[in-house]
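### Sample
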Amino acid sequence: MKILAVCGMGFGSSLMLKMTADRVIQKKGIQAEVEATDIGTAESVQADLILTNNEFASQLEGGRSAVKAIMNMASEDEVAKAIDEFLEETNK
């Protein structure tokens, strides 16, 4: 599974979100690659799941990747919930 952590420039909040997602997938034992990127690049990268803030989530929805909005980039609980929701939706 490929997860994109997306912010405006690709090296601020997306890096924080990537580190949080890395911790979550490691704890859950999920095989996934997490990449931090900017909003412009995100639209052209093939990914299963995009994690981002509310503003960028609305811009990225409707593409080929599932999109989940994260309010607190450092919250493992919030990121875990988003990943769990994605996995439930894809396993239906």
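The mean pLDDT is 93. This sample (PTS ascorbate transporter subunit IIB) is used throughout the tutorial notebook.
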